[in-house]
Amino acid sequence: MHAHSVSPPTAEMSALVQQLLLAQGGAYASVVDERVWKQIAVLMQVPEESRYDRTVPAGSYLIVPWDIASREALEAYIFKLWQTGVRPDFVVIVTSAIGLHDTDTDALSARFDCAVAAVDIRAGLVRGHRRLSLPLDIIFDPDTGNALKWVNPLQHMSRLADPRDPRVFFERLRRASPRAWVTMGLIAFNVLVFIAMKLTEPRNFFGQFDPRYLVEMGANVGALTVGNGETWRLMTCTFLHADIIHIGFNVYALKVLGDTAERLFGSTIFVAIYLLAALGGSVASLGFTLAANPNLPSVGASGAVFGIIGALLGFALSRRGSVPPQVFRGLTRSAIMLIVINVGIGFAITIIDNAAHIGGLVVGLGAGLALSRDLPPAVQPSAQTRGARIAAIVLALIVGYWMAAAGVETMPMRMGM
């Protein structure tokens, strides 16, 4: 069928015929490529018993969207199909080309022992077998299209289109989240905070901020976060950066990783993962890096960025059986490579807070395992289920904070850094 032309009007009419059958209790009986479902021949089944008000007869249907060149070409195609054992009760040809006359549809019906009808878009009518043409004729009613808008064929294909097919997977991913708007929002917020800080303390735009200024703006400092009970610093520190190189790296990593993660998890869950991983990084930093250095300020979105890496790895591991093998290999290899490289750099350069990286990574991995999903139109986890899992992660972070706080030397803050 791919060798034959299908004009846009023919494709849209084919979709309308499919919607009509679905609205009357029909279902797809063949695997359908979600990208080209309007342009290819599909098999559908309308059951004998249905809870829908039905005007079309029950049975198996073959819908052929084909701007045919001749009846002979169509006859040859149906004959090859019959040889494969596919023998539907009804054949619906949708065309906007030369069309088929009643004599053509009668000849096809007699030869293949089935009811054949031709939806002639140019003439605006349905020709052929009366049992089929009369109920299909309503699709030329202008109100019919509006009445069928609620029928989404793509949802009905979810059991048949194989999500392990990369084309199906990426089409579902694109349709589920056309834009990664949360990622761009987080990037914009981090950049705006950095610019505002530079305008407030504009000594050297390309230089590092004074550590005392970072503390004033909300850096994570053990002596204040724990000693003064300023736990809000666990979050504010994740939106502060020491210099332009620091924020540049984090913003770039957030753009590259966030675009993919937001589409895989959905925008709302992506926000939750980002914030949970950010807190996880701060808690880990408090328990290790800052425990022996209570006056040292820790800042940056690195914990959240590592959390996104962990979430991508968690998604791949939890959905291994339902994502394309290429996607699984790509996610796992990229995540492991980034983890090894960045953790290695963190251990080599003492100024880097590696504890925050590892803490964000661990929380992100757990969140990715707990909050992953099959892409729509598959059934999504309930809000209650996801809420309970997020609450469990928050509880774990609270316990982690208590443990970290117990090890922090809560001496008074010394500002002479």
Characterization of this structure:
This protein has 417 residues and is an alpha/beta fold. The protein has two domains: 154 residues, no CATH class; 233 residues, Up-down Bundle (Rhomboid-like fold), CATH 1.20.1540. The chain is built from 17 helices and six strands. Strands 1-2-3-4-5-6 form a six-stranded mixed β-sheet. Strand 4, helix 3 and strand 5 form a beta-alpha-beta unit. It is elongated.
List its traits.
single chain, 417 residues, alpha/beta, Rhomboid-like fold, 2 domains, six-stranded mixed sheet, 55% helix, 7% strand, elongated
Per CATH, the superfamily of the largest domain is Rhomboid-like
Helix-and-strand structural type: alpha/beta
The DSSP helix count reads: 17
Low-confidence stretches: none
Instruction: Summarize the helix and strand pattern as letters.
Output: HEEEHEHEEHHHHHHHHHHHHHH
Indicate the topology.
Layout: H1 8-23, E1 27-28, E2 42-46, E3 59-65, H2 71-83, E4 90-95, H3 102-112, E5 115-120, E6 125-128, H4 130-136, H5 142-147, H6 153-156, H7 166-176, H8 181-200, H9 211-217, H10 222-225, H11 233-236, H12 244-265, H13 267-287, H14 302-318, H15 325-348, H16 354-371, H17 383-406
Parallel strand pairs: 3-4, 4-5
Antiparallel strand pairs: 1-2, 2-3, 5-6
What would you say about this model in short?
The chain is an alpha/beta fold. The protein is 55% helix and 7% strand. The model has no long low-confidence stretch (mean pLDDT 86).
